[in-house]
């Protein structure tokens, strides 16, 4: 098995790396890697239903969809990610890979356990979420290891008002979480945790330290640009959903009800006690066919029709209720 320490912190590149290694190479791989701030949503999830959009945009947190199922997770530089890719595998075995991590942590005095379908816990609190997929006869299993991630940032980034968005898609469940360092007398840094995991895996199997070739880097970069950095993959692939929000502003109450399909506004209705010389239906027509994201909507709100539909209501206030 080849070991790669992926030094990139770019979440789009890193998710592309996993897909490339699974689908374009034929060797078995063990990889450790760290992302900068990002929410990684599961393949079958509704992105807008998983993220606190306002908090994510205000704090420059990236959002990217992965190739495996399961729920949304928050990564930062206090979290270590691990990936195993094996050949001749036709089933997903969460317990097998979970026990590798449990064994590694046991060496530093931590008692971890498998919990539910795909989580690892310490004292009943989740510190690792796992997901997996199979491509032809190759199996990819990956997971998170929370070392020192601030719990408040995680919960704020993933907290969504359940009344705001309704629709299909696999919904995440926020669990009680913990960090590995909370259970150590002497805290580790990321490099220390990398050594713990690497040394344990090295004792279990023959490891050959490896790195990306120039060809790998070029192809991963292309996949990242063509897929993982694209709105169409990260947001547009979401199942159909209904978005509703209402807010009282000094110039009146606005209530918006929106239907979104493949990330595009399919239907939008506006209600409230606001004033305007144009019918709100003209405003709705402007937004139909627009992406349901802040940048695309913001551009449309510069149309002069908008200010004539909503007297005294600012562009910023409209954005608050539209996204």
Characteristic key phrases:
323 residues, alpha+beta, BirA Bifunctional Protein, domain 2, Enolase-like, domain 1, 8-stranded mixed beta sheet, 4-stranded antiparallel beta sheet, 15 strands, 33% helix
Mean pLDDT: 92
Report strand %. Answer: 25-35%
Helix percent band: 25-40%
Distance between the termini: 46 Å
- Report the CATH C-level class of the largest domain: Alpha Beta
Count of spatially separate domains: 2
Q: What shape does the CA trace take?
A: elongated
Rg, Cα atoms, Å? 22 Å
CATH architecture of the largest domain: 2-Layer Sandwich
Structural class: alpha+beta
Q: Please give the number of β-strands.
A: 15
Structural account:
This protein has helices spanning 11-24, 47-50, 53-58, 94-106, 151-158, 190-204, 214-228, 231-234, 280-287, 294-300, 304-309, 315-322; strands at residues 2-6, 29-33, 38-41, 62-65, 73-75, 79-87, 113-115, 119-122, 125-135, 138-146, 165-167, 208-210, 241-249, 252-261, 264-272. The protein has 12 helices and 15 strands. The protein has 323 residues and is α+β, with helices and mostly antiparallel strands. It folds into 2 domains: 2-234, Bira Bifunctional Protein, Domain 2 (BirA Bifunctional Protein, domain 2), CATH 3.30.930.10; 241-322, Enolase-like, domain 1. An 8-stranded mixed beta sheet has the order 7-8-9-10-6-2-1-12, sandwiched between helices.
């Amino acid at each position: 098995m080849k070991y790669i320490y992926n030094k990139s912190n770019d979440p789009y590149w890193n998710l592309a790396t996993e897909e490339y290694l699974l689908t374009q190479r034929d060797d078995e791989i063990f990889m450790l890697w760290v992302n900068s701030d990002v929410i990684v949503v599961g393949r079958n999830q509704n992105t807008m239903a998983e993220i606190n959009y306002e908090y994510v945009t205000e704090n420059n947190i990236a959002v990217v969809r992965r190739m495996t199922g399961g729920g949304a997770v928050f990564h930062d530089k206090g979290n270590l990610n691990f990936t195993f890719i094996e050949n001749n595998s036709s089933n997903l075995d969460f317990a097998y890979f979970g026990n590798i991590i449990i064994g590694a942590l046991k060496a530093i005095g931590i008692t971890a356990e498998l919990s539910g379908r795909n989580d690892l816990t310490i004292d009943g609190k989740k510190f690792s979420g796992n997901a997996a997929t199979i491509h032809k006869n190759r199996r990819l299993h990956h997971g998170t290891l929370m070392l020192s991630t601030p719990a408040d940032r995680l919960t704020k980034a993933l907290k969504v008002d359940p009344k705001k968005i309704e629709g299909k898609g696999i919904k995440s469940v926020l669990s009680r979480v913990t960090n590995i360092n909370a259970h150590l007398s002497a805290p580790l840094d990321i490099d220390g945790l990398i050594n713990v995991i690497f040394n344990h895996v090295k004792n279990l199997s023959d490891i050959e330290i490896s790195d990306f070739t120039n060809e790998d880097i070029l192809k991963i970069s292309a996949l990242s640009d063509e897929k993982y950095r694209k709105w169409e993959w990260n947001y547009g692939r979401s199942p159909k959903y209904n978005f509703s929000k209402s807010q009282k502003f000094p110039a009146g109450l606005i209530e918006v009800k929106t239907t979104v399909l493949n990330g595009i506004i399919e239907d939008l209705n506006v209600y409230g006690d606001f004033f305007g010389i144009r019918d709100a239906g003209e405003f709705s027509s402007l937004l139909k066919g627009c992406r349901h994201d802040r940048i695309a909507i913001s551009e449309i709100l510069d149309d002069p029709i908008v200010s004539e539909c909503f007297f005294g209501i600012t562009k910023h206030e409209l954005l608050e209720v539209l996204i």
